[in-house]
Design a protein that fits this description.
With 457 residues, this protein is of the alpha+beta class. It has three domains: 142 residues, Periplasmic binding protein-like II (D-Maltodextrin-Binding Protein, domain 2, 3-Layer(aba) Sandwich), CATH 3.40.190; 109 residues, Periplasmic binding protein-like II (D-Maltodextrin-Binding Protein, domain 2); 171 residues, Lysozyme (Orthogonal Bundle), CATH 1.10.530.10. The strands form four sheets. Strands 1, 4, 5, 6, 7, 13 and 14 form a seven-stranded mixed beta sheet that branches. Strand 2 and strand 3 form a beta hairpin. Helix 12 packs across helix 13. The longest helix is centred in the last third of the chain and has 23 residues. The relative contact order is 0.12.
């Protein structure tokens, strides 16, 4: 990147982009253990092109996102933001990513009426003037609120604008209309296209605006980042790759959309995997974080209960039969997801306890334990002995013990007198620890979306 740019601190100093996102199908969600989302994929693409690491923070509300951006807790808001005059006075927006309209959400008339019949049309709001005397529910800081106010002021139509609580998300708004709790709400057309097949009793086809632009927002002083983003978006938004990503999220098959909906938001009853209850049970039994067990399992087997490695490891937690037997699971039961997870959790607990006694630091102990789970306890003990010999911190993983483990591919280190277990492809357990902890942070953030940091894998 050109050094003449005054690059924002996170990009310049840390080589990363901190993105503030919302937990939604369009922005960011977890599906089958991995992060997904239209804007998330675009952000990853941008960061790859600019040699940046991506960190995301889930923002529970629009106000939270704006406050966090202005306080410097993030570099960019990527949350299906409509570019409006009021917002542009406070923020810098990128060129448009999408063009969309605001669409009214309402229930279809009851009965088996043809949508082109006069009776059907008489019962549906087909233009904004027909909202006279009706109540429409939106968020106060949304572009929808601005638009409804403009309609009232410009046309004199008497629309009652009711405010939703900030923690009510888009899907909840749609569900409330579907259940008859509220009569009307408003969503962007791209979001309407996602949900129309899941809510066949709802009508999403009455526009309330002309076409509007969706973009990303940065702080007003972030001129350099704004220029990088602008150049990148203009270069790529009409590309085939961009179109493929767009269609994947905004025109998915019905079965894929159902999968996305059921899995994207853990705080509303979704799941990381089909085995969450087993992870939770084992975690309670061994006093571990169940999301850490899920992250380890995803790294080991991608949640494939029948996975087998070339070295004889079996199942979700990729256990060798003799290891599983030590923790109460016979080889014949290793393909049983519950028993495999229980044995894997027991093994991890043993390793965590082993290292916690030596480090007196639970977070460090987890790193040492994960490396031991992957490479074997002996190789990690070798790395500790090497760290002691070379006068590094034997109680700290990052840049100390991990660096010694990584070097066990070299004869200078694996043949050293303090080493007892020989050669090790040490870069593998080092990357293993990094991956598992990154997946764990993602799962924690989506399960408890209050702005926690998550590093992209």
């Amino acid at each position: 990147m050109d050094s003449v740019y005054a690059i924002p601190t996170n990009v310049e100093t840390h080589g990363k982009l901190v993105a503030l996102v919302d937990n939604s199908i369009s922005s960011y969600y977890i599906f089958k253990g991995q992060p997904r989302g239209f804007e998330y994929e675009l952000l990853k693409w941008f960061c790859r092109d600019h040699d940046l690491r991506l960190e995301v923070k889930i923002m529970p509300t629009f106000d939270h996102a704006m406050d966090s951006l202005m306080a410097g807790k993030g570099d960019i808001v990527a949350a299906n933001l409509t570019i409006t005059g009021e917002r542009s006075r406070r923020l810098h927006f990128t060129p448009w990513l999408l063009r969309t309209r605001q669409m009214l959400v309402q229930r279809k008339p009851s009965g088996n009426l043809n949508s082109s019949s006069r009776e059907y049309q008489n019962q549906i709001v087909s233009e904004y003037l027909e909202l006279e005397g009706k109540t429409v529910y939106v968020h106060r800081r949304s572009a929808f609120y601005e638009r409804l106010q403009n309609l009232v002021e410009e046309s004199g139509v008497n629309i009652n604008i009711a405010l939703l609580d900030d923690d009510v998300d888009v899907e909840e708004m749609i569900e409330k209309v579907d259940a008859g709790i509220i009569g009307y709400t408003v969503v962007d057309e791209n979001i309407a296209n996602l949900y129309r097949h899941l809510y066949p009793n709802l009508h999403f086809d009455t526009p309330l605006s002309l076409r509007q632009s969706i973009g990303w927002a940065t702080r007003a002083e972030s001129d350099t980042l704004q220029q990088l983003l602008s150049d990148w978006i203009i270069e790529h938004r009409n590309s085939t790759k961009f179109a493929v990503i767009y269609r994947k999220y905004f025109h998915p098959t019905r079965s894929k959309l159902r999968d996305m909906q059921s899995s994207y938001n853990l705080s509303r009853g979704g799941s990381i995997s089909p085995y969450d209850s087993y992870f939770q049970s084992a975690a309670e039994r061994f006093q571990l974080d169940w999301k850490l067990l899920a992250a380890l399992s995803f790294q080991e087997s991608k949640f494939n209960a029948e996975a087998r490695s070339a070295f004889g490891a079996v199942g979700l937690m990729q256990l060798l039969p003799n290891t599983a037997a030590r923790f109460g699971t016979e080889e014949s039961l290793l393909l049983n997801p519950e028993m495999n997870i229980r044995a894997g959790a027991g093994f991890l607990k043993y390793l965590v306890d082993f290292w916690e006694e030596r480090t007196n630091d639970s977070s460090e102990a987890i790193k040492f334990a994960l490396a031991s789970y992957n490479a074997g306890l002996g190789h990690v003990q070798d790395a500790v002995r090497l760290a002691a010999y070379f006068e590094l911190d034997t109680l700290t993983w990052n840049d100390n013990v991990e660096s010694m483990l990584r070097k066990k591919t070299s004869p200078k280190y694996y043949k050293h007198p303090v080493v007892r277990h020989g050669y090790c492809r040490g870069y593998e357990p080092v990357q293993y620890v990094t991956n598992v902890l990154a997946y764990h942070r993602q799962y924690v953030m989506v399960a408890q979306p209050h702005g926690e940091n998550v590093a992209g894998p």
